[in-house]
């Protein structure tokens, strides 16, 4: 091995062992696009805004999380946990939405994708407000 090759090899080894080398992989994993995850995995059932497809639209879901949870980080964490493993004890949806659409199935996503899509959903409605639907809370539009 000549002198130049030794210098290049030692620079490569130093770069791999430096604290900054881990920063690149963290940045790469943090760069997951929540909208792309939604489009690929969720949009078959969820529309962004009404009318609904076969599941509640995203904007009312986001509004519901904003109404129930004041902390953005807690809301994202709880939403990601629900997407990963939906259950009645984790659900924040309107009970009429569960009655109408049923409980969603678990979505097999990695932690980075779960966080990215939950963050994207959270950010779809920052006001936490959403008007009543056509049923006006009467429950008469629930499928029997």
Description of the structure:
There is one protein chain. This protein has helices spanning 3-17, 19-30, 34-41, 58-68, 72-84, 95-101, 111-122. The model is unreliable at 7-29 and 133-144 (pLDDT under 50). The chain folds into two domains: 1-31; 33-122, Orthogonal Bundle (Cytochrome Bc1 Complex, Chain D, domain 2). The chain has 144 residues and is mainly α.
User: What count of structural domains?
Assistant: 2
What would you report as the Rg, rounded to the nearest angstrom? Answer: 21 Å
Number of strands: 0
Give the CATH level 1 class of the largest domain.
Answer: Mainly Alpha
The coarse overall form would be globular
Which parts are unreliable, with pLDDT below 50 for 5 consecutive residues or more?
Answer: 7-29, 133-144
Work out the oligomeric state of the chains in this entry.
single chain
Measured as a percent range, the helix fraction is 40-55%
Report the sheet-strand fraction: under 5%
Helix/strand structural class: mainly alpha
CATH architecture of the largest domain: Orthogonal Bundle
Sheet with the most strands, sense and barrel status: none
Order of helices and strands: HHHHHHH
Fold-level CATH name of the largest domain: Cytochrome Bc1 Complex, Chain D, domain 2
List key phrases describing it.
144 residues; mainly alpha; Cytochrome Bc1 Complex, Chain D, domain 2; 2 domains; 7 helices; globular; disordered C terminus
């Amino acid at each position: 091995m000549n002198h130049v090759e030794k210098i290049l090899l030692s620079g490569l080894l130093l770069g791999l062992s430096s604290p900054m080398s881990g920063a690149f992989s963290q940045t790469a994993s943090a760069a997951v696009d929540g909208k792309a995850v939604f489009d690929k995995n969720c949009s078959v059932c969820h529309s962004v805004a009404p009318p609904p497809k076969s599941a509640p639209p995203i904007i009312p879901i986001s509004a519901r999380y904003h109404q129930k949870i004041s902390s953005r980080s807690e809301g994202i964490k709880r939403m990601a946990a629900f997407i990963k493993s939906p259950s009645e004890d984790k659900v924040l949806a309107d009970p009429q939405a569960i009655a109408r659409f049923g409980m969603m199935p678990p979505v097999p996503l990695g932690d980075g994708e779960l966080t990215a899509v939950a963050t994207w959903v959270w950010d779809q409605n920052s006001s936490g407000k959403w008007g009543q639907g056509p049923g006006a809370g009467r429950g008469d539009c629930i499928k029997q």
